[in-house]
Write a structure and sequence with these properties.
Elements lengths: L12 H10 L29 H19 L3 E5 L4 E5 H23 L1
Antiparallel strand pairs: 1-2
Helix pairs in contact: 2-3
Keywords: Membrane, Transmembrane, Transmembrane helix
Protein name: DUF1049 domain-containing protein
Length: about 110
């Protein structure tokens, strides 16, 4: 004897259970125009992590550059015996670069 087909609009119980386990319930599962796209396994783009140390470093460099630019007078620099005259921005910039180079050299030594 042939198996009897379920009435139109009704789904056989084993078939319904199979659809539920797969997450396919019919037309309601189809994406609509307003639906969010599902993750298809592609890696998500993430915002790069910005460390507080990087933010502090960028802020200090910006403040140092600002400080150098607003101090534009000429100053006299005394060494042990000789002296020189130079613009303040040059002296401050050279001091900042010397400090950055010293920090970099000490970091290389720790690694």
């Amino acid at each position: 004897m042939a198996a009897k087909a379920p009435p139109a609009g009704r789904v056989d119980v084993p078939e319904r259970r199979a659809r539920e386990s797969l997450g396919t319930h019919g037309p309601a599962d189809r994406p609509t125009e307003n639906a969010m796209p599902q993750n298809d396994g592609a890696p998500r783009t993430r915002r790069p992590n910005v460390s507080p140390r990087l933010v502090a470093g960028v802020l200090l460099v910006a403040l140092a550059i600002w400080f150098v630019l607003i101090n534009n007078r000429s100053v006299r620099i005394h060494f042990w015996i000789p002296w020189a005259e130079a613009p303040m921005w040059f002296v401050l910039g050279a001091t900042f670069l010397a400090g950055a180079a010293t920090t970099w050299l000490f970091q290389l030594r720790k690694k």
